[in-house]
Design brief:
There is one protein chain. The chain is of the alpha/beta class. It folds into 2 domains: 179 residues, Spore Coat Polysaccharide Biosynthesis Protein SpsA, Chain A; 78 residues, no CATH class. Helices cover 30% and strands 18% of the residues. The protein contains 9 helices and 13 strands. It has a 7-stranded mixed sheet, with helices on both faces. Strands 4-5 form a two-stranded antiparallel sheet. The longest helix has 17 residues. The radius of gyration is 19 Å and the shape is globular.
Length: 289
Amino acid sequence: MKEKKYVICIATSTDFAIATAVLIYSLKKNLRVYNDCDVKVLYNNLDSHSQNLIRKVKEDVIFEGPKDNSFYKHIDKTIYGKDNYDVYLSFECLHQDEYQKSIYLDADMLCIKDFSGIILGNEGGISWRIPNLGTIVVGERLLGSETYYKFIDAAIKHKFVNNPGGDQDTLRFLYTVGSDVQPIHEKYNFQAFGCGGPGTNKNFLDQKDDVRVIHYSGRRKPWGGVYDGRSLDEKNCMSYPYMCFHSEAIRIWYRYYEEFKITHISGNTKFELYQVQNGTIIEDTLVAL
């Protein structure tokens, strides 16, 4: 067994590097069991600049490719398009039997309050918010190569082999009900904040005090540009930036980004230097500077 009890697995790519760095910063800030965890960043394509950016928030982060990607050749297309298999990186959280528990998070998430309860409360099976696998906790009973290859086998042999949401389809097929399944509340994988997706800004504000993890699923990425209509496969963007501008969930991500920048990236402009030196976030241009 590893020295640390748990492992946090985050699937990412070069396009999602800044999101990953801010997510890890938010975990460091809010997750009570963070110091009991190794952090693994799972990737197929992640350039050196992106890796160095993520190391700024956690020097000993572990970068890890898929243990077996041979099954990719059986899959024509995923939600990110042809020849992009990043969705299947979620399977890697299963092959972590050197730890007591494995926690998987999508890179497009933010931890705004402690969610240690669902980690400590996992009874050895799989804890997740059906139908979206943005947050998963896997216990000892299911960790290892047997479950890992069970998922791979299902992914390539069943009718959803080329469905865009292949990894989620696989998890739903295998673990929707049964003694190994522990459903978790939506506050651990909260997507209902509007911006053209589920819910509304008011819905988020009404539940804000209970939300633990925000999931910026779909084209609601605070770090992305505006959607230009070039490709339906493009997800690292905002379809409705005006709605996003009015979203509290989006504003929260920007505040965490500014905190990350102040604490982990040296300032280059006079405004950034002021923020770093004073440990504060500037809300408007300071004319005196």
